[in-house]
Amino acid sequence: MPRAVAVSMWSVVFLLIAIVLVFAGIRFGTDGPLIVTGTPAEGDSFELRYVENPWLAYLHIVPGVLYLVGAPLQLWRRFRERHFTFHRRFGRVLLSLGLVSGVFALAFGVPFSYGGAWQSLAAAVFGSWFLVALLLAFRAIRGGDVRMHRRWMIRAFAVGLGVGMIRVWVGIFAGFQILSLEESFAPAFWLGLTMHVVAGELWLWWRPNEDGLPRSARASVAA
Ligand code: HEM
To answer: Which residues are listed as membrane-spanning (predicted)?
Structure first.
């Protein structure tokens, strides 16, 4: 892969992870003191749902953050090739974390969405896609199909990263006062996560295989 492409791609990945970490930190900082002291959140505040449903919310956020921080190591080819045993063991841990986060994305995100029914629908659609991708990645590697394992893991990671892109769209809509904060959430979920599913598919189309050769090079090798 051209170095410039790799550097740009990883920069975007780490920027989006950093955005998610900032928002997770804000959640801990805002909800934590209220949950620990048993203080109720204000009736119309954003944090109300997190403070009233801490188990559902934090069984989504904490494993999700750990999954998102750990996954780049699994996707980094050179590291994977050099530490294959670690890749397998750590993969099981990350898979479990991703599955727990995905299940609680549905359990918390669908009934308690801030932005209403359209956001709930997005959480149901993309949360299910995230879970299906993780499960199919696991099934593929159990069956020895490394190629499909890679493809489904990239699809799952693309959706997980999309969580950062949702915050970018919320920032644009609410920051430029195009929509209120509450109205921003549903379109931000649909836009952010659709963009990431499409980006994942484009990546897989451009680099369909593990061998590191882009589609164009593979065509010329085959000819
Ligand atoms: C796997 C990595 C993930 C991480 C690290 C993560 C992290 C977070 C964080 C930090 C929040 C709190 C939001 C805030 O205060 O701004 C949140 C909320 C939420 N997440 Fe995730 N998430 C992940 C995956 C997903 C997936 C795959 C879905 C399903 C589409 C999802 C759906 C939701 C929903 C619906 C909420 C509630 C938003 C609201 O307040 O209405 N998350 N997540």
So the answer is: 7-26, 55-73, 93-114, 120-141, 153-176, 188-206
pLDDT bin (cut points 50, 70, 90) of residue 215 is: low
Tokens of 204: 């897989």
For residue 43, the one-letter residue type is: G
Q: Which of 50, 51, 60, 157 to mutate to test the pocket of ligand 1 (most atoms within 8 A of CB)?
A: 60
Question: Which tokens belong to 131?
Answer: 């879970």
Ligand 1 neighbours (beta carbon < 6 A): 20, 23-24, 27, 60-61, 64-65, 67-68, 101-102, 105, 109, 113-114, 123, 126-127, 130, 159-160, 163, 185, 193
Domain boundaries, the chain: 3-212
Sequence-ordered list of residues with C-beta below 8 angstroms from that of 19, at least 6 positions apart, any chain? 164, 167, 168
Say if residues 187 and 169 touch (Cβ distance below 8 Å).
yes
pLDDT tens for 115-168 read 999 999 999 999 999 999 999 999 999 999 999 999 999 999 999 999 999 999
Please state the separation of Cα 83 from the chain's center in Å.
24
Measured CA to CA in angstroms, residue 219 lies from 82, 200, 214, 216, 223 at distances of: 28, 21, 9, 5, 6
- Ligand 1 centroid–CA 177 distance in Å is 23
Atom 32 in ligand 1: which residue has the minimum CA distance?
A: 105
